Amino acid sequence: MKKVLFFLLWLQQSWAQSTTPAASGNADSLSVYNRQLSPAEMKQDLQLFLNIRKKANSGLYRYRTTKKIDSIYKWAFREVRQPMPTLEFFKIILQLTDFEGSCHNYTEPHADLVSYLNRQRAFFPFALKYIEGNMIFNSKNAAIPVGSKIVSINGITDKQLMQSFYKYLTADGLTITEKQSGSVNSSYGLRYLYEYGLKDSFTIQYISPGGIQEQTLTVPAISLEERKANLLVRHSAPVDSITDYNVQPKYSFRMINPETGLLNIRIFSMAYDATDPAFPIYARFLDSVFRTLDSGHVPHLVIDVRGNPGGSDPTFEEPMMYLTDSSFKENVLAYTIFDNGIPYEDHFWGISTAVKMDAASKVEGKQMLKDYFPALRGDKNIQNSKYNPVYHPKSPGFKGKLYLLIDEHVASAGSHFASLVKAYARNVTIVGVETVGGYYCHNGHMPLIYELPHSKIKTKFSIVHVIQDAPVKADQPEGRGIIPHHTVWPAFNDFMQNKDTQMEYVLRLIAEDA
User: Fold this and answer.
1) Locate the Tail specific protease domain: which residues (predicted)?
2) 128-234: in CATH 2.30.42.10
3) Measured between alpha carbons, how far is 367 from 13 in angstroms, rounded to an integer?
4) For 354-394, how does the pLDDT look when each residue is reduced to its tens digit (9 = 90+)?
5) For 123, which DSSP code?
6) Distance between CA atoms of 401 and 513, rounded to whole angstroms?
């Protein structure tokens, strides 16, 4: 329980978790699962949703004033004056959770509805890729050439499509980078069905690479299994796999050349905490890496954390100790806003949408909460100081030129590591795209999931507001992710040739420094 609750972002919740078997006969229809909700039901769910947020969500007012939060809820209550299907109400809840500004927020419809949609032959058949602000066709061996610009799908323009998916992609503060790429790269599975309903076919308008004339193709919808198979062989798969923690080892090291080392950290889940038997193995690995760099007088080190969604203490602090001359902490302040117990426990689901927490686990969880956050004083229940130790520099520290590769998918412990690197690392240059996780603060550590009684929508948020050990920097505005020194998105020509734009950029910087 402790290990699971304290896992910063083990995996972003799946949009296809349910394994509920198909119902039989006429009962297995969308109207059964996407049932019509009455205004009274939705108002009760909305009020409970707001009450839970006010009682337990320490980040509710971090990026939005009370007036702004009140305003969006007034809008939501106005929207539910007439009956509507569950998925339409779900979209309202999505906008409320997105407005808060936390990449740990997550919202999911009832598992039976998810399962029903997953069983339908209604999925978009092709892979798409966000490149230079456009929706680019990314499937091989199709009637549409790879690299074609998508103009519209079923009459909805590319820009309208992208914007419609922003609410599904929560981010810390006001960051939009992951919304931009995610609205194309990861929104044509279930999200498309949520947003636009079940379709038998898709009419695609596109412009071929180098062309100027729009062309049109209509294709039938396919099953989820067929879509997954198509995605595996997408054009960009070789480059995408480089930063995919599902494909690559969690951590690895190699020498690119005699003067440049490459340390990849794909996810900070190599150990749950310092007591995990896997942690000493990881620590010895890092020590060997930095001893190799030191003994070889290696002048350049690239640390690649692109795609890293997070993990747990102290896995992300461990490499940082070799990169700095300064002592540092995980945070300067961390707190919840409630005392003992779980607020609105009657509606509490657990810490995973897949499994409801049982009574014994609740007892254990409450004991852990009491240990980490012992007592409410005023409006804050401050973290027990024993869980926020000071980390000191380690030898042999890397004294050469450090390059940190980040992208818009770096979140939670991944972005926290990037924040520490930007704050305290020696001689560092950061390359890539602004992270979805914040530089100064975030809500994390301990997720709670609640189920709304009428709509059965599940809502997840993290209860601990963490003010990171992140000094104020001129190029780090409030409410943003880690801003790279060199902003580099994947380029169209590199996409066509399956080149890693960001790594190529770093290697050019290193060559210029030589």
Assistant:
1) 281-438
2) yes
3) 25
4) 899 999 999 999 999 999 999 999 999 999 999 999 999 99
5) B
6) 9
